[in-house]
Amino acid sequence: MAIEIKEVTTKKELKQFIQFGIDLFKGNPYFCPPLVFDEINTFDTTKNPAHEICDHIIYMAYKDGKIVGRIVGIINY
Description:
This protein is α+β, with helices and mostly antiparallel strands. Helices cover 27% and strands 32% of the residues. It is built from 2 helices and 3 strands; from the N terminus they run βααββ. A 3-stranded antiparallel beta sheet has the order 1-2-3, covered by helices on one side. The mean pLDDT is 95.
């Protein structure tokens, strides 16, 4: 099955995006997981002042319906 790339557009998908990053490094003694609410606020254009000069787009990769990757594109004007 091919990998499908989908844009993150809902709050539920954003939480899945964040949780995937946490799960990916679970068990690594050197990984300090982020605070989920802080990560959500980072991508909230109304709460993060960096969005006054930046734009972002978030994608997740799926294979057989399971999340297998994530990426964020940021443009700093």
